Amino acid sequence: DEDKLSMVGGYWKAGRLATEYKDSTGMLLKDIALEIETPVWSLQRYTQFYKTFPGGYPEKYGSRVVTWSLICCILPVHDARAREFYLKEACLRGWNKYELTKRIQKDYYGTVEDAAAANQSKTLKSPKQRLYTYAAEVIKIVDADTFDLEIDVGFKTKQEHRVRLRGINAPEAGTSQGRKAKRFVERELAKCVVEKPLFKGTRADRPLVVVKTYKLGQHGRYTVDIYYLPGEADPETIAESGKLLNQVLVDKGLARKVE
Q1: Is the CA virtual torsion 23, 27, 29, 35 positive or negative?
Q2: What would the pLDDT profile of 71-97 be if each residue is shown by its tens digit?
């Protein structure tokens, strides 16, 4: 590894010296190569290496040294982030120059970036408006994005509301996809029936969830986020560590994100 580091470092320094000499003398690179008895194509590659990494190049990723063959593979890549990505992946995954070249030709970086962007576009954004958080029991699952809840609003007061999940739209309950989505929600929330009531009046046969309410939507229903955590009876823990049902449905392909 030390020999490889020394060799690659030597090529980078040669590229720097050749570039500086060319700039100071105005000589052509081919004339410099002839003067120092070096193949012109080698000197061109060294100067390209230096100009690509003028501030220094990455010597290692993990325990693997960045070899000259890997450097040569990524020099034609114009995007700096893509170059870094390919070198890092090649080192961490143990790719040789042929495997790396194949992935560059197939735009592996672009594919990964597109996938990351697609995942990001599916992530629900939290509204900046004021919201309220309550423990609630699920009375009825109307469909995958609509629920009847008994909400504990404090001071020994409970209110029943029909609510709709914020930011998503699930298929209609009468369709096959709608029934599939509803069955998924029923299975998930069935795991949230608490064995022992945490507070007086809690029904042991109802799933316990936490809701964050936002605003009244269509038909006078609140739009909400529903958090759930199988087997957990503490609303604070559910609020902090629970799964966001809205997001889970989008991630599972059972609902689509809407603005």
Answers
A1: negative
A2: 999 888 888 888 899 999 999 888 899
